[in-house]
Hints:
Layout: E1 13-17, H1 21-32, E2 37-41, H2 44-53, E3 58-62, E4 64-65, E5 68-69, H3 70-80, E6 85-90, H4 95-103, E7 108-111, H5 119-147, H6 157-170, E8 176-179, H7 186-195, E9 204-208, H8 214-222, H9 239-242, E10 247-251, H10 258-270, E11 272-273, E12 282-283, E13 287-292, H11 296-301, H12 307-313, E14 316-319, H13 330-344, E15 351-352, H14 354-362, H15 368-382, E16 387-388, H16 395-398, H17 410-424, H18 429-436, H19 440-449
Parallel strand pairs: 1-2, 1-3, 3-6, 6-7, 8-13, 8-14, 9-10, 10-13, 15-16
Antiparallel strand pairs: 4-5, 11-12
Helix pairs in contact: 2-3, 3-4, 6-7, 10-12, 13-15, 17-18, 18-19
Amino acid sequence: MPIQIKAKSMQGTILIIDDEEKLRGLLAKIISLEGFEVIEAANAKAGLKKLEQQEFNVVICDVKLPDCNGVDLVKKLKEVSPITEIIMLTAYGTIADGVKAIKNGAFDYITKGDDNDKILPLLYRAVEKSMLQQRLHRLEKKVNKQYGFDSIIGSSKQIQEAITLGKKVAATDATVLLLGETGTGKEVFAQAIHYGSNRKDKNYVAVNCSALGKDILESELFGHKAGAFTGANKDTKGLFEEADGGTIFLDEIGEMSPDLQAKLLRVLETNEFLKVGDSKPTHVNVRVIAATNRDLQRESETGQFRSDLFYRLAVFQIALPALRDRPKDIEPLAKYFITHFAAKVNKPVPEMNLEFLQKLKTYSWKGNIRELKNMMERVVILSDNPLLTKDDLPFEIKNSTSTISNSYNLSDVEKNHIQRVLIHSNGNKTEAARLLNIGLTTLYRKLEEYKIS
């Protein structure tokens, strides 16, 4: 008795590659009656072309084709569309062909002439798997857009160079030190590195080292045993354990106490630490990304920060540019924030006139991207105008004078040039001094004079 298959609430597109026109047409009719969209191709070349032109859930492919062996074709089909499932059909099945087809990426391999009812249950399973892969693919793209390098806005040379470095180091397990002023997007970069790495499916944990006292931070990072201190009623995991297999982001690392610096150094060197009140080490596999707005190299030289920890953290350094040094990116960032906050407060997205934009581009932005974000939120909330003008800006921006591009003051020019060279050298002061053709001591004096961090 034929197997009865209840049509499922599933849409899918199927490609049939077979040179036997009658058999291909019959199979297409059977599958179409199940509610699937079916496209036909008479040979491998035509099938590959159709797969390049549109997305298919499943390819049903004959092994014996006039221009290609179907088993070998599986690899090419998977290269074009990795999330498409492939079912092989043959009139003369062999175990060797079946094994090779599966190894090449086929979903399954069945012989023509077998019970024809086998094809439909097999097809439904293949479509279900393909749709699951599509959902995962879309979710991954969404995550990349929200947290990956796609979330970093800007086309300026400075930010693109930083992104290039970030993508390169993301593929490794190297410790990363992010340098830059407050508000330059160091945490966004840390997230992008995590989600661009092979650790992306594990936890990403962020902690601000300046927000907690020494004892609390130690317990937060490394956990504690029951009875370790008053109120410690049970064993508690720390953030390093929570991040096991993934990434921990230590923001404001320069604020960490010397005792904790020593403990962190041990983790970086041995992947082990002692919980508060414990005598047995805990082992973890964690990637560390640290960030600071301070000159840790100089502080390590003066004894304010452990030099051995600095060199362990600074395996790979990325300097993030200040917003005032990338005026080209101010407009797209402002547009992004306007769109985001307009949707949040359920308002139409306003446009920006030239005077409004000019004020944004020539303002100093000491708080960098964070300051721009907060300012754009304020503007969107307060303004009901479809076109934003200078009058919609806060007093300090509306009445500001240019501090960057329009200045001919020699000290301003020198300051801007030093900042650009520091960005080019990724924050390496020795290299910056060499490029500027000045002594390192002279560079440090100018950095202090111009208050460049």
